[in-house]
Amino acid sequence: MKRLKIYYIRYILPPYRGITIPPFGIFIKKEHKGNQKILNHDLVHWKQYQRMGLFTFYFKYFKQFLIYGYNKMPMEIEARYEEDEYTKKHYSEVYHKSKHLLRKLFH
Ligand SMILES: [Zn+2]
Question: At what angle do helices 54-68 and 74-81 cross, to 10 degrees?
Fold first, then answer.
């Protein structure tokens, strides 16, 4: 498995502040360097890639995106949940509504 590289770059397609592009690494907008929430979020996507492998990561990501949309897709929900202690304790309705989706995906 390729070692993780994190790049801080000037431009990322809006509205994204950070993006994980396996197997290359994590790309974060320069102005958000030091934002732990963004880093934690994208580290989850990197772990998903390691867990699933390259092909499955992209396949599942786009499949979920098409089926559930960005806000309700399990891979984004998992990443959002891990952003910080606050999101873990006070997770939004979206998460609770989508718990069954997470269960389906990971168990
Ligand atoms: Zn994400």
Answer: 100
